Amino acid sequence: MNTLTIVLTDGPYISEYAEMGYKIASAALKQQHKVNIFLYLDAVHILKSGQNPVFFANVGELFCELALLGAHVEACPRCATARGYVPKDEGSGDYLSGIKITSLYRLAEMLQESDKVVTLSR
């Protein structure tokens, strides 16, 4: 089984990268690939609960859908903590359920195990 890792750095509504990452991950899962998603820098905001965008897709919910389909969606703990998300039981009370705040070392592990890496960043 091939493994794809997607690294996102932009916040959810600052660019289309979150939606592009979702579409790439969704297509890879449909082709039976293993998918890792690592949220770094402002991308940790993607998974904040309670977002209610009027003119955009709710990307937090889209990423929760990916996690339910088997993608590993993880966030950088230093980035999350710096932005006010307190890690709690591998997630955060401010995060949608099923998403882990792990370790920057996990990014290195994800990259090492991947056949392909996509980075969406400005």
Detailed description of the structure:
The chain is an alpha/beta fold and about 120 residues long. It has helices at about 15-30, 60-70, 75-80, 105-115; strands at about 5-10, 35-40, 70-75, 85-90, 90, 100, 115-120. The strands form two sheets. It has a five-stranded parallel beta sheet with strand order 6-3-2-1-7, sandwiched between helices. Strands 4-5 form a two-stranded antiparallel sheet. Strand 1 (about 5-10), helix 1 (about 15-30) and strand 2 form a beta-alpha-beta unit. Helix 1 runs parallel beside helix 2 (about 60-70). The longest helix is centred in the first third of the chain and has 14 residues, at about 15-30. The chain is globular, with a radius of gyration of 13 Å. About 35% of the residues are buried. The model has no long low-confidence stretch (mean pLDDT about 90).
Arrangement of strands in the largest sheet? 6-3-2-1-7
Task: Give the structural class.
Answer: alpha/beta
What does the radius of gyration come to? Answer: 13 Å
Major beta sheet, specifics? 5 strands, parallel
Question: Outline, from the CA principal axes?
Answer: globular
Strand content: 15-25%
Helix content bin: 25-40%
The arrangement of helices and strands along the chain is EHEHEHEEEHE
Mean pLDDT: 91
Task: Tell me the number of strands.
Answer: 7
Treating each run of at least 4 consecutive H or I residues as one helix, how many helices? Answer: 4
**Poorly predicted runs of 5 or more residues:** none
First-to-last CA distance: 30 Å
